[in-house]
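Researcher: Go.
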Amino acid sequence: MAKTTTPAQYALILIDMVESQGCDRNSLLVGTSLTGAGLATIGARVSDRDFASLVANAQRLTGDPALGLNLGLRLNLSAHAVLGQAFMTCRDLSQVIDLFLKYYHLLAPALHLEYEIVDDLCLLTTASSLAETPLDFGFELMCGAMLNTLRGLLSRDDLQLHLEVPYAEPAHAARYYEVFGPDVRFDCITGRIGFRRDLLQTPLPSSNPALRNLYEGECARLLADLEEEHSVAEQTLRLMRKLEGQYPSMPQIAKLLNLSSRTYRRRLESEHRSYQELLDQVRAEHATRYLQNTRLPLSSIAYLVGFNDASNFRRAYEKWTGRSPAAVRHGS
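Model: Structure:
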């Protein structure tokens, strides 16, 4: 069964960053299937499991609590490969955002983002993430990469961001203020990144409509290839995670995948999965995230994942995970 993957260039940049601190490459690659030749192949991708092992090794070897942030700040436009090139050819930042929202799964297949404009801020919300790396590492990586990418596009080294961080203030919080500016809040319900709305109309000096169409066509091809690698079960999980709180029925999922209900059920059976199993898996993921990262009462969490009362949710959650909601919330 195919798994979500990370662009190999991100792994290469992490390896280079850690080696520059005097760490041994062999120690860094312990527990992974990564090789230099494989990583250097154009268009290569690494499994999330390998990337998570690489990150864990890097954190252990460097002792750097801000590893995710420092890696993100190393991810410039060229690190994003063809999508980064497409960004550069856009008319303005508004067009960049449109392109990013269509193709960000090329960069982070396990991530689901939502975009909105609230007053004078453009906000990206991390609606869900099933990456195998720790939450703080992933959020720091995303924020650092977004800041560095925006600075590169706008040629503005002084650009700052609005951050709502979905975990408690870490010991290295001063680094956040140093990098992103004063508008940083910790222990928020969800992770959010924002920038000023008036930046959307900023013209980009490298705008080129003909090249943009060419690069976007390549992005569309790469995304289609990436999605074809996923099983019906994984495509179902992706849809359910994207439509959080709505949880489409089996016929609705089949329709979204351009399959008949009968074919959809047969394909799942061939993968030894069922619709109900997948639905329960996603609801357990969402409920766990609410329990760990928010202060919402149990009744509200129950409602958000499709239950009318907390007692039924409690029993279902224990069946899904083998743990009570209270134990998960309190980390016991």
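Model: Strands lie at 5-7, 45-47, 111-118, 121-129, 162-164, 184-185, 192-196.
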